[in-house]
């Protein structure tokens, strides 16, 4: 469970990016985070990744306040997250398989098992046939799916995707959202910042977090029978 209580984030230059954000997210939830440019979406994801710490308030992950975590605990927590970055952060000259295997570099396991896990993740995103292709030769959409495979290969508790539909047409945006949402399970929470949540099938339950000038409001689909987007 992720619980934020009156969490604020002020950057060093004094910018108030998050203003007393309070929200509770249960395990296995599908979450859409929306809001205008500069409203604080990425800042919220950075907090969840432990890349920034709250300036005020409490952010609790499971049983621990993130500000109380020691280095080791923070590292273990980060390893339980599968991040999908806006700009993918793939190594262009390496194969899709090698890039996905990098998602497991912290595992002290033998190479063969890591390779099998990476191939399985590529299969899940429909790219097994491109496993040995160099990333620079992949299409934009394929590279994005490699980035998703790298995020899910570690079987994370939390998948964080920052604007995965930003540069996609409607058809591909739906495919990517559906793919990301498919990783939502009892114990896997999927949080996606997107402007395209309304493209998902109507019967999907999710939490909608709206950001506006650093403030957050939260609604759960199904609470009132109304769809949120
Ligand atoms: N490292 C930083 N230092 C100072 N200010 C920052 C920093 N990162 C972001 N900001 C500011 O914090 C506010 C929130 O930014 P954030 O990137 O979280 O917004 P966003 O909703 O993700 O925007 P976008 O949709 O454009 O990606 C903005 O005013 C932004 O300029």
Characterization of this structure:
This protein is of the alpha/beta class. It has a single domain (2-221), classed as 3-Layer(aba) Sandwich (Rossmann fold), CATH 3.40.50. The chain is 28% helix and 25% strand. The protein contains 6 helices and 10 strands; from the N terminus they run E-E-E-H-E-E-H-E-H-H-H-E-H-E-E-E. The strands form 2 sheets. A 6-stranded mixed beta sheet has the order 6-7-8-3-9-10, sandwiched between helices. A 4-stranded antiparallel beta sheet has the order 2-1-4-5, with helices on one face. The longest helix has 14 residues, at 111-124. The chain is globular and about 45 Å long. It starts with a strand and ends in a 9-residue tail after the last strand. The structure holds adenosine-5'-triphosphate (ATP). Adenosine-5'-triphosphate (ATP) binds next to helix 1. Residues 2-229 form the ABC transporter domain. InterPro entries: AAA+_ATPase (IPR003593), ABC_transporter-like_ATP-bd (IPR003439), ABC_transporter-like_CS (IPR017871), ABC_transpr_LolD-like (IPR015854), P-loop_NTPase (IPR027417). This is Cell division transport system ATP-binding protein. Keywords: ATP-binding, Cell cycle, Cell division, Nucleotide-binding. Belongs to the ABC transporter superfamily.
Give the gist of this structure.
By secondary structure, the chain is an alpha/beta fold. 28% of the residues lie in helices and 25% in strands.
């Amino acid at each position: 469970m992720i619980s934020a209580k009156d969490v604020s984030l002020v950057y060093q230059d004094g910018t108030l990016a998050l203003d007393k954000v309070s929200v509770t997210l249960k395990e296995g939830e599908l979450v859409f985070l929306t809001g205008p440019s500069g409203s604080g979406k990425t800042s919220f994801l950075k907090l969840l990744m432990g890349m920034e710490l709250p300036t005020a308030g409490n952010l609790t992950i499971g049983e621990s306040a993130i500000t109380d975590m020691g280095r080791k605990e923070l590292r273990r927590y980060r390893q339980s997250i599968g991040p999908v970055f806006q700009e993918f952060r793939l190594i262009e000259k390496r194969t899709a398989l090698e890039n996905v295997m990098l998602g497991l570099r912290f595992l002290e396991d033998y190479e063969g098992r890591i390779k099998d896990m990476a191939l399985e993740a590529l299969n899940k995103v429909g790219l097994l046939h491109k496993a040995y292709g160099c990333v620079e030769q992949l299409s934009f959409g394929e590279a994005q799916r490699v980035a998703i495979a790298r995020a899910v290969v570690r079987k994370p508790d939390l998948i964080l995707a920052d604007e995965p539909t930003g540069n996609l047409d409607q058809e591909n945006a739906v495919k990517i959202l559906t793919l990301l949402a498919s990783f939502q399970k009892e114990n896997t929470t999927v949080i996606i910042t997107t402007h395209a949540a309304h493209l998902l099938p109507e019967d999907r339950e999710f939490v909608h977090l709206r950001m506006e000038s650093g403030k957050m409001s939260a609604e759960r689909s199904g609470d009132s029978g109304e769809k949120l987007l």
